[in-house]
Design brief:
The chain is built from six helices and nine strands; from the N terminus they run E-H-E-H-E-E-H-E-E-H-E-H-H-E-E. By secondary structure, the protein is α+β, with helices and mostly antiparallel strands. It is elongated.
């Protein structure tokens, strides 16, 4: 089977790395060094897509022969963007705002290909929290899990107990929407085949 270019994850996120590992893919982690601030007048979906693209472009300068994957996740409640909490009190306040309500998680994803092309998109999942009291929230924050996560929770960990339901792709909330990843691969001329990537035009070998 034809080999594929090296896959590079332009992110230090252990959650994105874990998803790629579960897919059986071999990859290298090369974190980007871009500044992640927002732009005036920029909506949350635009923000997530732009940062994903910028991460890919910055790392592709260092890894021009690779297939480079970048992502960014934004949590939005109403019109407010909820980033990573600065301290435990901000984490508590964020989680109490989310309690009993529905918010949106937007994960931008970008793929840079060795031919110089770039494909990108944004996936959106709606997450509804259970009603929560302050005692429970403070106990969760004391675990340390919320501190490096947008929205101050990790749905793949202890934070799963905060969630009543989701509408959409679970992996979007974790930070690497799988349907979007597979679509972007195909747009760029590749497809995922259970542990490896193959050129899209490659046909399965006949069974004997």
């Amino acid at each position: 089977m034809t080999g594929h270019p090296p896959l590079v994850l332009a992110s230090a996120s252990p959650r994105r790395a874990e998803i790629l590992t579960r897919l059986g893919l071999t990859f290298q982690v090369v974190p980007s060094h871009i500044r992640e601030g927002g732009l005036e007048g920029e909506g949350p979906e635009e923000h997530a897509r732009r940062l994903a693209e910028e991460k890919v472009l910055e790392v592709r300068d260092r890894e021009p022969e690779a297939l480079v994957l970048g992502g960014d996740t934004v949590v939005v409640l109403g019109e407010d963007r909820l980033g990573k909490p600065a301290d435990s009190e901000e984490a508590v306040a964020t989680l109490l705002r989310l309690a009993g309500r529905t918010h949106r998680v937007m994960s931008g994803l970008a793929l840079g290909f060795p031919d110089g092309s770039l494909r990108a998109g944004v996936a959106v999942t709606r997450v509804t929290f259970r009603p929560l009291d302050e005692i429970l929230v403070r106990r969760y924050v004391a675990t340390g899990e919320p501190m490096d996560k947008a929205g101050a929770y990790g749905i793949q960990g202890l934070g799963s107990a905060l969630v009543a339901r989701i509408q959409g792709d679970y992996h979007t909330v974790v930070g690497l929407p799988l349907p979007l990843f597979l679509d972007l691969l195909e747009e760029g001329g590749w497809r995922y085949e259970f542990g490896t990537l193959v050129p899209r035009e490659t046909k399965p070998e006949p069974q004997e």
